[in-house]
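Task: sequence design from structure.
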């Protein structure tokens, strides 16, 4: 197949239609929907530098173990050596493993044509917004769409953080709540439309097709937490026991009406967003808090009406929740029965797709590009740098 010859490192290019995000060490990895991955040096968060672009036809998801980047390329899984980020190279390919398709379309309608890239420039700003906890706020520096990424080298997840932890063992990075890839011990887990796929990566440079587990249909996201896997689908949340990483076992299903469904978990509570949209035939736009203290019998704690919730992240007790074109909302979730009474802020006039909180830094993705914030005080966010769509250095 001709496309299998085209995975290669190229010179940096501007963001055009950014998709999912991933962070490891000083580097940021930004998916360009269906085209490949931008590698960005973020050792100085106020001045991120584009290093290279990896041309990966059909790419939608990312995971990194040590110096190996894993990515989907249409039906294949590719392993890429990124020890020299400027000269990334394919080192292994597992063919025809994603037969039902992985990619969910991300931020964009994939039927749209992709236009040309404009002149490449980066604009750096520092701006402060003070938030009144009693009111919804719409600070004028938030553009219509946005995305922030953190320098994880200088941060560590706080005990309260719930942002798709890529767990245990080797040196892994961090994904968002919309991810279909997850790392745990010697395995890479991926979810397709109806299956959980296991790859043995005990030797990171040589991923091996290991096993498949049939789940259902409409599978969308995967979130590893402690010894369990929480898998979001269009009809519910599946919980898998993962004490033996080679043999995940289904414990239960928390069902809901048809709606798109990412999930994050903190301690005994799963936070699930349900939304309507082009690919999500349904009428629910809400945040569900689910008691998973008994993972074999999850119980709904309470549902909260939202506008169009997408990705979410928790740095307990602060929940960051993306509302698509309606912006970003912050909640204090200490009172699980009164989340709606403790909305801390609402940043409007922006499009928010997915978010990751990493201690003192906030990561946000939207259609306008790449944004990075100091969130050491969530009610006093400071914009560190931004790379709008169409610009790079």
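Answer:
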């Amino acid at each position: 197949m001709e496309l299998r010859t085209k995975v290669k490192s190229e010179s940096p290019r501007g963001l055009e239609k950014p998709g999912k995000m991933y962070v490891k060490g000083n580097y940021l990895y930004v998916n360009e929907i269906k085209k490949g991955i931008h590698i960005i040096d973020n050792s100085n968060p106020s001045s991120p530098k584009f290093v290279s672009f990896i041309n990966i036809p059909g790419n939608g998801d990312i995971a990194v173990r040590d110096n190996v980047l894993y990515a989907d390329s249409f039906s294949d899984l590719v392993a890429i050596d990124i020890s020299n980020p400027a000269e990334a190279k394919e080192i292994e390919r597992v063919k025809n493993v994603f037969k039902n398709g992985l990619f969910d379309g991300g931020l964009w309608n994939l039927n749209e044509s992709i236009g040309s890239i404009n002149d490449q420039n980066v604009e750096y700003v520092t701006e402060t917004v003070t938030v009144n906890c009693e009111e919804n706020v719409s600070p004028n520096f938030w553009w219509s769409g946005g995305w922030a990424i953190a320098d994880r080298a200088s941060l560590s997840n706080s005990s309260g953080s719930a942002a798709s932890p890529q767990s245990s063992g080797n040196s892994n990075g961090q994904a968002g709540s919309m991810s279909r890839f997850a790392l745990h011990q010697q395995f890479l887990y991926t979810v397709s439309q109806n299956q959980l796929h296991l790859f043995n990566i005990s030797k990171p440079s040589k991923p091996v097709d290991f096993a498949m587990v049939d789940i259902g249909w409409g599978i969308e996201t995967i979130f590893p937490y402690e010894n369990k896997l929480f898998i979001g689908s269009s009809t519910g949340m599946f919980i898998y026991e993962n004490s033996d990483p080679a043999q995940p076992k289904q414990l239960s299903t928390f069902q809901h009406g048809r709606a798109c469904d990412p999930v994050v978990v903190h301690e005994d509570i799963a936070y699930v967003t349900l939304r309507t949209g082009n690919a999500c035939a349904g009428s629910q736009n809400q945040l569900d808090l689910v008691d998973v203290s008994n993972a074999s019998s999850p119980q709904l704690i309470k549902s909260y009406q939202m506008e169009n919730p997408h990705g979410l992240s928790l740095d307990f007790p602060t929940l960051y929740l993306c509302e698509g074109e309606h912006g970003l909302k912050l909640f204090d979730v200490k009172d699980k029965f009164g989340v709606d009474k403790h909305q801390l802020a609402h940043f409007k006039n922006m499009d928010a797709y997915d978010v990751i909180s990493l201690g003192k830094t906030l990561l946000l993705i939207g259609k306008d590009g790449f944004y990075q914030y100091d969130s050491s005080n969530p009610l006093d966010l400071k914009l560190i740098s931004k790379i709008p769509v169409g610009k790079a250095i």
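The longest strand covers residues 18-24.
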